[in-house]
């Protein structure tokens, strides 16, 4: 399937004109971030992984990845918020629950209904953080703690993942607000967490006690190893955010060029060339997902490393001003932090750390020669 160039042109125009100039406020203000999300909705860009009124199929993989990278270049907070909804929309599009599909799908692309997800606890070792008990009437009773749900105040509901007694995973819809059911079942949300990066995404924890999800609100039931297999097969999905973030760092570095700083252009050229090589390798790997010879973990770690280095380059070239809360360089640096850990698995953690040793080890300062020592002496 060919890339949807028209869609990407439309999204780029919106991001360039409306999102980029407001990135600082989108990073801090949940209402402004919500408005930007609605802007994507007005362009019908919020359910790219499923059929919509205007589109009978998902967009192709290349278009979706390019879109994710585009959004991350202009606003990390918007990129992260919208991708939660895109994931929920994709799950609903693939659900066998016909009633849910009819009720939700017509409204997801335009953002008339907005949904979050709470899955990441499935990666944690030990006893399941959230469990589901089947009831006689076909409903399920949910209890436990969901450690991360983004989008409080923006998403009306979220898809919770809970582990069944036979270890399969149940996905069902719950309200993204504190509530008590008539029989006493309860969901209690924390206050939005005071986060260093993307605080405007209003990320909360949820404590759930005996909450009943009726059968009609069950999205799907998946095998016990679903999440693990998904993390392995989709290991590159989060890389597109890191690529966008790296490009954002280079945008700031490029804007900081001046005749009195002649060392910036060659450094910009070198980082841009490395980013292009990394990007090409990642897009190629994403399109040939069954090729076992490609080390996808290493590619993801490279993209993360590049995001951090390009953000650091932006900070350095922006001098003291980089420290101002509204300066793009430090926002991008904080976003690089967040994109380093989103969707992290033990294997991704290991690859990310090993990449740091690799890239820094080769660049340790060498001993200066006698001639060089002489040159550097202060008068
Ligand atoms: C701001 C923010 C918002 C988020 N929003 C959402 C959201 O809306 N929905 C959502 O589903 N997720 C969300 N997440 C979760 C996110 O995608 C990642 O899953 C998360 O950042 C990983 O951090 P964690 O602390 O949960 O790590 P964990 O998942 O606890 O750990 C990361 C990996 O390390 C492994 N690990 C941990 N301890 C050990 C150990 N001792 N030995 C070996 N391996 C170990 C885990 O098994 C896991 O694979 C959010 C995260 C952040 C930071």
Order of helices and strands: HHHHHHEEEEEEEEEHHHHHHH
The hetero compounds bound to this protein are: flavin-adenine dinucleotide
Q: Which assembly state applies to the chains in this document?
A: single chain
CATH architecture of the largest domain: Up-down Bundle
Primary descriptors:
alpha+beta, Butyryl-Coa Dehydrogenase, subunit A, domain 1, Butyryl-CoA Dehydrogenase, subunit A, domain 2, Butyryl-CoA Dehydrogenase, subunit A, domain 3, five-stranded antiparallel β-sheet, 13 helices, binds flavin-adenine dinucleotide
Descriptive report:
This protein is α+β, with helices and mostly antiparallel strands and 379 residues long. The protein folds into 3 domains: 5-113, Acyl-CoA dehydrogenase/oxidase, N-terminal domain (Butyryl-Coa Dehydrogenase, subunit A, domain 1), CATH 1.10.540.10; 116-223, Butyryl-CoA Dehydrogenase, subunit A, domain 2, CATH 2.40.110; 234-361, Butyryl-CoA Dehydrogenase, subunit A, domain 3 (Up-down Bundle). It is 49% helix and 14% strand. The chain has 13 helices and 9 strands. It has helices at 5-19, 23-28, 30-42, 61-74, 76-93, 98-108, 226-233, 239-255, 264-287, 296-317, 328-341, 346-361, 370-375, and strands at residues 115-118, 130-134, 140-149, 157-163, 169-175, 179-180, 186-189, 204-213, 218-222. The strands form 2 sheets. Strands 2-3-8-7-6 form a 5-stranded antiparallel beta sheet, with no helix packed on it. It has a 4-stranded mixed beta sheet with strand order 1-4-5-9, with helices on one face. α9 (264-287) packs antiparallel against α10. The chain starts with a helix and ends with a helix. The mean pLDDT is 93. Bound molecules: flavin-adenine dinucleotide.
């Amino acid at each position: 399937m060919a890339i949807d160039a028209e869609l990407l042109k439309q999204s780029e125009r919106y991001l360039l004109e409306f999102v980029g100039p407001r990135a600082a406020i989108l990073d801090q203000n949940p209402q402004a971030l919500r408005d930007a999300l609605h802007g994507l909705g007005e362009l019908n860009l919020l359910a790219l992984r499923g059929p919509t009124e205007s589109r009978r199929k998902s967009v192709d993989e290349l278009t979706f990845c390019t879109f994710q990278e585009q959004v991350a270049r202009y606003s990390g907070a918007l990129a992260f918020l919208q991708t939660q909804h895109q994931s929920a929309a994709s799950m609903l599009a693939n659900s066998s629950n016909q009633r849910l599909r009819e009720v939700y799908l017509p409204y997801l692309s335009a953002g008339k209904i907005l949904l979050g997800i709470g899955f990441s606890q499935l990666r944690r070792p030990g006893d399941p953080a959230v469990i589901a008990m089947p009831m006689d009437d076909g409903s399920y009773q949910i209890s436990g703690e969901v450690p991360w749900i983004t989008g409080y105040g923006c998403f009306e509901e979220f898809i919770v993942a809970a582990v069944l007694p036979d270890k399969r995973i149940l996905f069902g819809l719950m309200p993204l607000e504190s509530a008590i059911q008539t029989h006493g079942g309860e969901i209690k949300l924390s206050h939005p967490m005071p986060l260093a990066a993307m605080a405007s995404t209003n990320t909360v924890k949820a404590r759930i006690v005996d909450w009943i999800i009726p059968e009609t609100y069950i999205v799907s039931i998946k095998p016990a190893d679903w999440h693990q297999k998904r993390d392995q097969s989709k290991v590159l999905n989060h890389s597109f955010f890191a690529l966008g973030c790296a490009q954002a760092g280079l945008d700031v570095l490029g804007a900081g060029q001046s005749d009195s700083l002649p060392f910036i252009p060659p450094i910009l050229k070198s980082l841009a060339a490395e980013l292009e090589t990394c990007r090409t390798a990642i897009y190629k790997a994403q399109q040939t997902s069954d090729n076992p010879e490609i080390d996808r973990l290493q590619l993801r770690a490279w993209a993360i490393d590049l995001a951090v280095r390009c953000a650091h380059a932006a900070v350095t070239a922006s001098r003291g001003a980089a420290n101002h809360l509204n300066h793009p360089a430090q926002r991008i640096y904080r976003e690089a932090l967040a994109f380093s850990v989103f969707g992290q698995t033990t294997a991704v953690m290991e690859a990310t750390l090993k990449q740091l040793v690799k890239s820094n080890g080769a660049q340790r300062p060498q001993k200066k020669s006698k001639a060089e020592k002489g040159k550097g002496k202060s008068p």
